[in-house]
Predict the 3D structure of the following.
Amino acid sequence: MDKEMAQTLVRTGPGTLMGNLMRRYWVPILSSSEIAQPDGPQKRVQILGEKLIAFRDSSGHAGLIDEFCSHRGVSLFFGRNEEGGIRCAYHGLKFTRTGECVDVPSAPQVCARMAIKGYPCIERGGLVWAYMGPPDKQPPFPELEWCVLPEPHVFISKRLQECNYLQAMEGGIDTAHVSYVHRYEVDTDPMHAGTKALDYIKADGNVVFEIEKNDFGLTLYGRRNGDAESYYWRITQWLFPWFTLIPPFGDHALGGHVWVPIDDHNCWAWSINFQPTRPLTADERGHMERGLGIHCEYEPGGSFRPRANKDNDYLIDRVAQKERRAYSGVFGFSMQDASLQESMGRIQNHEAEKLLPTDRGIVMARRMLHEAALALSQGIEPPALDGSKQRVRAAGVLLQRGLNPAEWAREHLADGLTQPVFSI
Ligand code: FES
Ligand SMILES: [Fe+2]
């Protein structure tokens, strides 16, 4: 990737090309449960390089406002969340969830010019989402399957990933890596074990990709040998600008991710599991809460930083590596991915990489993001703003060798939420 393109893709702060593009979509900010109580403790959050405060006001509405008071810049983290807004602890200025200033005790007449920024928020799938773009361009609400299912069907966790969002998200697009770093753990993980999918994945490490551009992003078809007459296709969806849907394993819960920049050196990796037709069982939820599957264990203290992190070499176990219990010696799918992606540096040197044919998916996603960011700067609206475009599923299927997987997908995965789940 050349320098201009790399710089455009990785910079997401206010006023950057990619930052402007991302701000045209609803942005996952934090779990609703992190601000569970009206007038409960507010939380500092940083998203797309902006320092903000999330809180639930007296009416129960989630709010997201500038962290700092317009008077002399005090952090509203130390303010009082009560009576419909946050009051700055220093001289008592009061802000509602829209950022409007409703009280300046010492000079009420200046209220109108003391407003701070406040972003509209909605709650979907147990998350608070904010719209951080131009007010007149607010898009329809997200309609990803896990956003519209009843809450008992869905489990969501987030973890801090200490690198740029792009290299993290690319791991979700590049399904070729599943045959390597995750190779051994899939046999023992309760959310992958015992599925036919694993036999095919392990037997054939040379995935052949076919990729289709469509109106929400990309559909990636990864072909491995199946049985004598068939291929095993893993069909991954990448949706603008940061969602992926993971091809499922057997009857286990479906999965997906969202990668949201905190700043250019860190991102939130959201991991989602869901069952379309039934609530998650206590067992399934228990596994997820314990950090199995695509989730992880945390350091104590509520930072959402994984317990296995770069300060402890992700708890690498060389014996387990030799004994073929963990391919890289790191345990846990998300930490296997994060360890490799963080090892590239906070921002990977994209100019130095030498890409391979299996990277076609990430190359196309980069191009589409880059094109959309440049186009937006010329007044062309971003793709896939309409939530109805997000009603797709991933799949893992055996198809007859002559069959065109894209044609199959058009019939079975487009508006796929009304169809059966295709998973082996
Ligand atoms: S700094 Fe907030 S009221 Fe003075
Ligand atoms: Fe992975």
The chain has a mean pLDDT of 95. The two ends are 36 Å apart (CA to CA).
